[in-house]
Every structure is written in structure tokens, then in C-alpha cells.
Amino acid sequence: MLREVGFLRQLGFDMHVASIRNPDRDMGLMTIAEQEEARSTYYVKSSGLVRLVRAHVHTLISRPGHYLRGLAGALRQSTQRPRLLYGLFYFTEAVAVGDWMRRHGLTHVHTHYASTVGLLVSRIFAVTLSITFHGSAEFQNPAGFRLAEKVQASRFCCAISQYGVSQLMFVCGYENWPKLELTTLGVDPDKFQPRPFRASPSPFQIICVGQLAPVKGLHLLIAAMAALVREGRDARLRFAGDGSERNALRQDVENRGLSGHVSFEGNVNQDKLLDLYRESDTLAMSSFAEGVPVVLMEAMSMEIPCIAPWVNGIPEIITHETDGLLVPPGDAEALARALARLMDDAELRRTLGQSARRKILEKFDLRRNTEHLADVFRRWLNG
Question: What Rg value do the Cα atoms of the chain yield, rounded?
């Protein structure tokens, strides 16, 4: 998203960024570009109580009807107390964002993911709304995420995969289909250049990049590693990322006696991630559900052959046996076989990697895809 915002600014868009949460890492762990964006970003949760109270008082006085209707709408989300509390949180955050937009003269809010805060901002303030839906969680629970309501309230909606477009078509009603746009993500192929190919790596380096979360199915990848080690293969697996599953995954690694074969790198910035990619012989995923993972695009751009499950939007980026390998979701044995196949066949790794970069250049170049997104913004907001 940071790179997308940067390209949109180069194309002449006046982009202001707001985030509900504070950064997930200290400034010292960020790249220079990340630090610059972090300094200019408005963080709702650290804006201070005084600013928050002023925002609510000003909005209540200047837009009393919209303020009260927004509050009522937030509270109607659910009669269950935890959800009621979340409704209050969303409302409080929405007023803070809307007041920040008012102070900066902003009239349109574009959100990533199925943001309830964005919906409430559009209900309370004189601004228009658009959303980019990534998936896959919101597509698994469209009622809970209020997808139909959010599509209805939006000027237009984007999905990052054709799979995502189809799910929005399914939930939002035919009359809303014209406002749905496919806006594919991408990477900068100049930044993610091919890394040196290793014909006979020792050890064989496998990288997995992403949140350590249940939906990623990472215990399957650990099980696949255990199978490779039992065969006497010299392989190493590195997890780049962090999350709620970290301790459970570490325990699984220890229980299987894989501590010498699996490492946890934690959250890393783009510079460190590039270093990890350059040392990798393959990227492996074991997710139960995905949108279209940018980490696949990054690895493919660097000619790293990828193994991923055939779920959701992944087959839109990987063509099996052409520019990567697809495996059945939930099948640790199939994942192990695919990894072993790549370990044994250097020429397959080379050809898959080269084809993967061609795919990125053809369909997932960030600049070209951001230009398409810019055209979507111009058409809907200026038309």
C-alpha cells in the first residue's frame, strides 16, 4: 500500500494517510521511506484525548443530526455487549477521522479492507466513500462484515482479484455490479530484481513471509519440513513475520526436533526482507485462504520459484507448472512433495523462476496497475 500511495502521488493525487493503529515497529526498524510516511500519517489512537473530545464536540454542534444518526447506526450493529462496545469504538474513531479530514479539506475517504470506520465517516460527514476489498476474511463472513451495506454506501468498490469481484457480486445485488472494479495489486520489478540463482544450494533455503496467524496454516509447512528432514534432506525454513501463532509454532518446531532447521525472523522491514529473499531458493505458502498475496509477487519478481495452495485468488497469479507450483490446501504431504521436487530439479527451479518474473512484468507491474487505479479514481470522482 505504501508503494501504491507513492505512485499515486507521483501521478498528481493529493494523498493524506490515516491509520487507526500506531506502527507495528519502532522507527529504527523501518526503511527511510517507511519512516517518512510514518511521520506524516495521522494515527487515531495516539491523537490524544483533548483532540478526540474537541472532534466530538465540534461534530455534535456542527452536524448534530448526522452525529446522532451515526451513533445510532454504530450501536445497531449488534445487541451483544462486546459488539456494542466495538460499535462505540468504531464511532469514536470515525468522528476522529472525519474531523481530521474536515481540518485538511478532504472530501473523499478510500479505505483498505472492509472498514466499518470508513462507512461511519461517510454517514456522519459530507464525504464520499470507496473501498478496496482484499479478502479473504470478509468474503467468508459477508454478513458479519456488512459487505452489502458497505458496497451500497460506496461511490465505487475495488477488489484485488477476480475472485474478490465475484464474491462482491454475489453479496451486493445486481444493481451494484456496475460500481465494482478489478484493481490488481503489483510490485516494483526494478526494486525486486532477480537474485543470483543457486544450482546446488546447501542448505536449501525456504522462506515463508506473512502473519503468523491460523489462516496461514503454518503448522502444515512445519509438518512438511519434518517430512523433508526425515528423508535426510538439508533444508532450512525461515518465517518472516509475527502474530498470534508465534508461540504455538515455536512449540511445534521444538516438539518435532526441528529447531536446527526452522528459524523465526520476526517482523522485518523491506530492506531486511530483500536480503532474506536474495538468500532463498523457494517461497512456500500453506494458507487456508488468501486474496492475491503481494509476497508471491515480490518473490516471483526476483525469480524465486513459489509453492502455494490453489485457494481463492492465488491461481490468478500462479499458473501451475508454468510459473510456480500449486498444491491442495491442507495437504502437508503434497507440500513436502512439491518442496522435494524443487530441491531435486535445479532446471525446474530456474525455468519456473524466469517464467514467474515474466508474469510479474506482464500483469503485476505496480506502476502500470497503479495507473489503472488512478484512472478508476478519476472516472468515479471527476466524472
Answer: 22
Q: Over 343-365, what HEC string results?
A: HHCHHHHHHHHHHHHHHHHHHCE
331 and 372 housed in the same domain: no
Residue 194 belongs to a domain: no
Domain of 33 in residue numbering reads as 2-187+366-382
Residue 211 and residue 242 in contact, taking contact as beta carbons nearer than 8 Å: yes
**Kind of pairing between the strands at 204-209 and 180-182:** unpaired
**pTM summary value:** 0.89
Helix or strand (DSSP H, E) at 326:
strand 325-327
Give the integer Cα–Cα distance in Å for 94 and 321.
47
Model pLDDT for residues 231-276, shown as the tens digit of each residue: 999 999 999 999 999 999 999 999 999 999 999 999 998 899 999 9
The grid cell for 275 is: 536480503
Specify whether the CB–CB gap between 215 and 289 falls below 8 A.
Answer: yes
Together in a domain, 96 and 17: yes
For 16-63, how does the pLDDT look when each residue is reduced to its tens digit (9 = 90+)?
Answer: 999 999 988 888 888 888 899 999 999 999 988 999 999 999 999 999
3-state secondary structure of 23: coil
Residue 198 lies in a domain: no
- Tell me the CATH number at 105: 3.40.50
d(CA 58, CA 127): 16
Distance between CA atoms of residues 146 and 366, nearest Å: 30
